[in-house]
Amino acid sequence: MAKLAVPPLFSLRHFLVLSLALNVSLILRTAYYESGEGSKGFCLKKKMMVDVDSDVIDKSRLAISSSTSSLVNSTRSAGRERVINLDHGDPTMYERFWREMGDKTTITIPGWQSLSYLSDVSNICWFLEPEFAREVVRLHKVVGNAVTEGRHIVVGTGSSQLILAALYALSSPDAAEPISVVSAAPYYSSYPSMADYQKSGLYKWAGDAETFDKEGPYIELVTSPNNPDGYRRQAMVNRSQGLLIHDLAYYWPQYTPISSPSDHDLTLFTVSKSTGHAGTRIGWALVKDEEVVKKMTKFIELNTIGVSRDSQFRASKVLKAVSDSCEQENSQDEESFFKYSYKIMAQRWKQLRAVVDAGDMFSLPQFSPAFCIFFGHETEPQPGFIWLKCEGDIEDCESFLRGHKIITRSGKHFGASPKYVRISMLDTDGTFLQLIDRLSAIQERE
Amino acid sequence: MAKLAVPPLFSLRHFLVLSLALNVSLILRTAYYESGEGSKGFCLKKKMMVDVDSDVIDKSRLAISSSTSSLVNSTRSAGRERVINLDHGDPTMYERFWREMGDKTTITIPGWQSLSYLSDVSNICWFLEPEFAREVVRLHKVVGNAVTEGRHIVVGTGSSQLILAALYALSSPDAAEPISVVSAAPYYSSYPSMADYQKSGLYKWAGDAETFDKEGPYIELVTSPNNPDGYRRQAMVNRSQGLLIHDLAYYWPQYTPISSPSDHDLTLFTVSKSTGHAGTRIGWALVKDEEVVKKMTKFIELNTIGVSRDSQFRASKVLKAVSDSCEQENSQDEESFFKYSYKIMAQRWKQLRAVVDAGDMFSLPQFSPAFCIFFGHETEPQPGFIWLKCEGDIEDCESFLRGHKIITRSGKHFGASPKYVRISMLDTDGTFLQLIDRLSAIQERE
Using one digit for the tens of pLDDT, what is the confidence trace for B340-396? Predict the structure, then answer.
């Protein structure tokens, strides 16, 4: 693939002046959003949002390969009256890379292929496609972000299913009471509901790991880099009876320096965040203990009788393309997937920090650079989410931003203060630029 | 597709004499099987069975398009020393049809397609692909097996996930105790584990619906035609506080006469059994009550954040091809998917009944023919499973058949007597013929 031009950091002043002027002349369109399941759910928006989303996507495509003026135009067309939804981390940002890759990751599946439930009956995880397993091992080797030797691979319908499978596998059906499940705040907003929605007698959400003081066994979810705030993490509760699940969905070079291969008992990854193929619903676990592998496999057998073979086939091809792009980078005029996505993320974080630093209404986490063994030089953490704090009098940052038609997820869902919100950094260029435009306008106005 | 020749019913005597003679001259191969999770699980067999399965598949392909002598040869090559596993209903029988269809159901997905989690944000079930939903409605109209008007469609990772989603949706988080889940024996062997593996405080397996006498609300799973025995069913518990889940995985013309469109509150179907695409892991629910739709959607959101979009795309194409084959049957020299599969099933049941009736060791369920609105004439039920009874002194039919290297699932897992076993009828031609050969040999010998 030829190198793609990342849009240069345009002049903020130029952008804002143009954008504000154009905004005034825009015909106001009726825009509203309906909250279905509350701000945590996916069902936020009905008819209207389809229109909004597809419009934004079209506009962003126009903007993608062109200059500042077309970026401004795209923002203008979408308009500030429109709701932009950055509540969930939908990784549509990566679409451009995969379009540019052309046919390299196109899959073709004939109608008679993979009819059987079974992928590999010689494996404990009988629904794991051998080709997918090979590409997982290869990619971890290429990137250097996980030890795969001495590990079994368990494939899941996204890493969500694997979190549940791991809770099931690490708990005991004979225990007198459910095992406590903890994670340090701010923790991933779905952990509490995932642990409790079934009212399971096996495990139970027990809140913030930092204040957890109950005796006996527990399961700690260690998310690193952390969702929502992007910081690197280690287990917080330091006791002998702890069982750890390492959720490393964002431990990839575009988000954080890869300091060393992760080397834990049970580690989770997903294509949603590594390559952007969220709709494919494929995650994987690297698991040391064979008994845990058996129980996780049993969980997935009872839950969904395995994992889509079509999706595993597609994920194999995508992971292969990523590894190939890394290995060929030096030999050909190509840019690896990670270099490409690192550059976009770097650009976005630069723009974001510039806007936030221009006023005093908001603040962002601060990170230290570190040596990345994948890139071979120091890199800066640039998380997939913004963990934004509203400074001053604004107590409910989510409501405040909703007033400006920016949908975010309140800090309270992450076990944190409502002065914080989580905002996706992985949406299309068009949506991201609208976010920047609006944050800037808010600081100008207030 | 040109009409395929179904192998004629060969002379059983000829087949048996040849087969027995050849069997004697076979070099005994080392064959064993290991039980991983017990006879109920998918992890039955390790290395050996991979070999067995692939061998059987190769042999069956040879046998498929040819005459009696090659069928005999195929059985001979596979040998009676080999373990044949008919414990689970893996629908590999349909492979031949899909091969003959050529490119009609081949899917091609470019690498940049369906990156997003979201399929259709205008739908409560936001992860449902609109194209898949349209093909579901169309197929039910073409076949006449379900009313779709006034129903929402919820897609699931196979119908297993939808059963769990339905249990979650129909139970109440505020109830004093878990709601009872019942089904009339013999019931699908996975129902008890599916209801209880999470030790949920929402619902709890309460056994055979026929003997259920507890007061208060309950959920009844009505499987029709029933897995394992193939009989048509209605709800057994007849009380006002019952919530019903109709599992109609086998309510398709190749298995049972379609008497009228099913018309229930919550009905489940799956591509695994209708078209044979088990590896694709796609099922769907037709649901009347919007609140139930919301809760089922929430369950799938927390469980797997949606359902593979690639698999939905593939399933759409497959369902479309099935509907097309039905609509084009009269106008062109083509055979519909259901006519084709009905003929194979009829042939298999004829062969099976001939073998079983030739001795007095085994017995089979008896069915009455009925008018099928799809075919426009009377048809006979011909279930996807054999519910075989060992007559006489054999108390443990599963162990007995295991001694003859036929792996089946014991009646005890279905809440029935161990004198019964369930045997898949949906395997390859080669494996099915080996089954017939062995049942015949057993009756000759004993």
Answer: 999 999 999 999 999 999 999 999 999 999 999 999 999 999 999 999 999 999 999
Closest-CA distance of chain A to residue B214, Å: 22
What CATH number corresponds to the domain at position A321?
Answer: 3.40.640.10
When the pLDDT of each residue in chain A is averaged and rounded to a whole number, the result is: 86
Long-range contacts of A207-211 (CB under 8 A, 24+ apart): A207/A182, A207/A415, A208/A182, A208/A183, A208/A184, A208/A415, A209/A182, A209/A183, A209/A184, A209/A185, A209/A235, A209/A236, A209/A237, A210/A184, A210/A185, A210/A236
**DSSP state string for A337-395:** HHHHHHHHHHHHHHHHHHHHHTSSSEE------EEETTTTEEE----SEEEEEE-TT-S
- What is residue B30's predicted lDDT score, i.e. its pLDDT? 26
Whether A305 is covered by a domain: the verdict is yes
Q: What total of structural domains would you count in chain A?
A: 1
Q: Which of A53, A202, A297 sits opposite B198 (nearest CB)?
A: A202
Q: Is B172 at the interface with chain A, CB within 8 A?
A: no
DSSP calls for A211-265: G----S-EEEEEESS-TTT------S---TTEEEEEE-TT-STTTS---S-B--S
B236 CB-contact burial (10 Å; exposed 0-12 / middle 13-18 / buried 19+): middle
* Closest Cβ–Cβ partner in A42, A108, A116 for B108: A108
In a domain, B297, yes or no: yes
Chain B, 210-229: which have a CB under 8 Å from a chain A CB? Answer: none
A194–chain B Cβ distance below 8 A for any pair: yes
Asked whether the beta carbons of residue B106 and residue A106 sit closer than 8 angstroms, the reply is no
Contact yes or no for A302 and B194 at CB 8 A: yes
Q: How close B222 gets to chain A, by Cα (Å)?
A: 19
Residue B437: is it exposed, middle or buried by C-beta count within 10 angstroms (0-12/13-18/19+)? buried
In-domain check, residue A369: no
Domain that holds residue A305: 130-327
pLDDT at site B238:
83
**Domain assignment present for B55:** no
